[in-house]
Amino acid sequence: MKWIGNILTIGLLVLALACPCVSVAQQSQEQMAAFFFDKGEYQQAAQLYESLYKRTTNRFYYQRLYDTYLRLEEYKEASHLAEKRLKEHPAELRLHVDVGNVYWVQKQARKAEKHFDKAIAAITANLAPIPDLAMAFLNAGRPDYAVLTYLAAREKTKNEQLYFIELVGVYQTMGDYAAMTNEYFNLLDKSPQLISSVQVNMQKAMLEAPDSRLSEGVKSALVQRVREHPDNKVYLEMMIWFAIQQKDFAFALAQAQAVDARFPDLGGEQLLRVARIAFQNDDLDVASRAFRLLQAKGKDHPRYFESRLGELEVEFARINHNYSIESKEYQTLRRRYSDALDELGRNERTVPLMRHFATLLAYHGSEVQAAVDLLDDVLALPRLTPSVRDEVKLELADLLLFAGSVWDASLLYMQVEKANKNDILGAQAKFKNAKLSYYNHDFDWANSQLKVLRSSTSKLIANDAMELSLLISDNMEDDSTYTMLERFADADLLFYRNQLDSAWDGFDAVSRAVLSHPLFDEVLMRKAQIRIKQARFADADSLLQRLVDLYPFDITADDALMLMAEINEERLFNPDKARQCYEKILLDYPSSLYSDRARKRYNALKAR
Predict the structure, then answer these.
(1) Left (φ > 0), alpha (ψ -120 to 50) or beta: where does 598 sit?
(2) What is the CA radius of gyration of the chain?
(3) DSSP single-letter state for residue 453
(4) Is the per-residue pLDDT at 533 higher than 80?
(5) In 10 A of CB 498, how many CB atoms?
(6) Using CA atoms, how far apart are residues 431 and 449, in angstroms rounded to an integer?
(7) CB-based burial, 222-259: b 16+ in 10 Å, e otherwise
(8) Beta strand segments in 304-434, E
């Protein structure tokens, strides 16, 4: 079929030459050349581009003609074309690459590099040809020569920061992470104020890296720089930043201490930073140590107040994380909270401390009245923001419900809902009041409120509302007398009030009353939650496994899997089973609320 293409080409040429307008003829010829080139019919494309280039010596036509010669493996023609153009346009340094590339594609590396070296040697302080030359080397598959191009330009111009972005990109493409990291650090030597930008870019690069080599390169380069410049604050801060990226908070704290010792004028800001980030990532031991180090600087230190509050916040998280607390441990923590409030005062700044203390008193020490009084003290503060005031009202209502003052609790829930009709706080209040009605056996009204909340903008509230709504709806339909649902709600209220043994008996009574019932999966879930609060994690795991095995299609199945995964990962130290649970959520329950969390934990366990 080649002869057809030739005839078509000749015909086009005749038509083009016959056209009174040369530019139109050239445009038609160029379109046909591009058509043949794109179709891979390079012989026909070459004929047309030869004609076009001969008439115009246009750079675009040259490049297309050169490319067609390479594709046709007509290397002599390609070399001759590039060499001739180089003689005519010696300032186009990229032409050296074209000449060398003819040898490179023929695997004659020595001859190729001879011409590549000529291009580098021809670089001057004139930067005009540099971008094209570097791109030519990259297109030829020689990023190492692109690096040499940028470095030569730096040398000729005596500008060490020239082409920083381009060099970083080439080093990253090459996988030369040590060189890439040193580029960033050399930039910081000249411009330490750019540390935030450098951290953002390096973090992005580490996230995109296919393996751990970049992280290892960064660490190696950092260690060397810190060793060579022990008093350079920027490198110490970069070391802290890197340790945080790797979630090695103990190492980050050690580096923060080094910064604090060498630069006391910084006021412990790095210690505070590590404390907060470690706390956010549940490394409570490191967070506690960091806050204590700040406290040890004395009451006159500017970070003392924050560190005092922060350490108690860590201890509060620790007791919530551990589910239960011994009496002696409770008394010690209670005394520490009381001492802190005596020292720091009861004011707007200590509101978080007062709220946590109230929770500790009520739910871990059964000192409900003392907790209510403390929250009343918070509400009496004159400068509380409306949102904080309503949050505290919700906590107070929860305590009143916990203590048995159902109507007072309901009144507070309604106040908060009315004041926050169109935001999440109002939805929370509405949900809590609906749950109170469920405890009070007013199932119809509770369900009507829950159905509204199922379209809440808060995914968590909508999910909780859906679960409770389905619990009520399913059992209102199957049990016209509501007997089982009433027994379950009574046990649920005992569970909320932390009367665990009585709640267990109540749930047990539901499962023993009949041979089968839609509530049985919920009973297993509540029993598992009771065992978790009692720190009997192996028993909880068994109950959750039964739930998943017997009721895989019920709404509690993915909840059970997530809870079981967390227990095995954090309490029973069985990462294999935890990974299996996370994987089952991803495979069998892809639309679960826990999918994102399960994927992250699964990947983290798989990477170990």
Answers:
(1) alpha
(2) 36
(3) H
(4) yes
(5) 14
(6) 8
(7) beebbeeeeebebbbbbbbbbbbbeebbebbbebbbbb
(8) none
Kindly state the percentage of the chain with pLDDT values over 90.
Answer: 65
Q: Where are the domains of the chain?
A: 1-72, 517-607
Residue 140's contacts (CB-CB under 8 Å, 6 or more residues apart) are 97, 100, 101, 104
Q: How many other CB atoms sit within 10 Å of the CB of residue 592?
A: 18
pTM of the model as a whole: 0.74
Residue 29 in this model has a pLDDT that exceeds 90:
no
Whether the CB-CB separation of 501 and 468 falls below 8 Å is answered with no
Output phi, psi for 514, to 5 deg.
-135, 165
Per DSSP, 591 falls in state T
Written as one letter, the residue type at 499 is Q
Q: What is the mean pLDDT of residues 308-317?
A: 94
160-188 pLDDT, tens digit each: 889 998 999 999 889 888 888 889 998 99
DSSP string, 245-302: HTT-HHHHHHHHHHHHHH-GGGTTHHHHHHHHHHHHTT-HHHHHHHHHHHHTT-TTST
Q: Which residues of 94-118 are buried (b: 16+ CB within 10 A; e: fewer)?
A: bbbbbbbbbbbeeeeeeebbebbee
Residue with tokens 């305590």: 399
Strands (E), 551-595: none
pLDDT for the residue numbered 10:
47
Q: For residue 501, how many other CB atoms are within 10 A of its CB?
A: 10
Angle, helices 284-295 vs 269-280, to 10°: value is: 150
Domain 517-607 in this protein, CATH class: mainly alpha
DSSP 8-state symbol, 517: -
Q: pLDDT for 264-283, tens place per residue? A: 888 899 999 999 999 999 89
Average pLDDT over residues 397-412: 95
Residue pLDDT, tens place only, 185-233: 989 988 899 999 999 988 888 888 877 888 888 888 888 888 888 888 8
Decide which of 321 and 72 is more confident: 72
**pLDDT value at residue 580:** 96
Residue 291 pLDDT level (bands cut at 50, 70, 90): very high
Query: Could you tell me the CA-to-CA distances from 308 to 39, 280, 289, 290, 349 in Å, in that order?
Result: 73, 17, 12, 11, 12
How far is the C-alpha of 541 from the C-alpha of 548, rounded, in Å?
11
Q: How far is CA 6 from CA 9, 48, 53, 68, in A?
A: 5, 11, 19, 16
> What pLDDT, in 10s, does the model give residues 354-373?
999 999 999 889 899 999 99
Q: Report whether 308 contacts 293 (CB < 8 A).
A: no
Q: Is residue 85 helix, strand or coil? A: helix
DSSP code, position 365: H
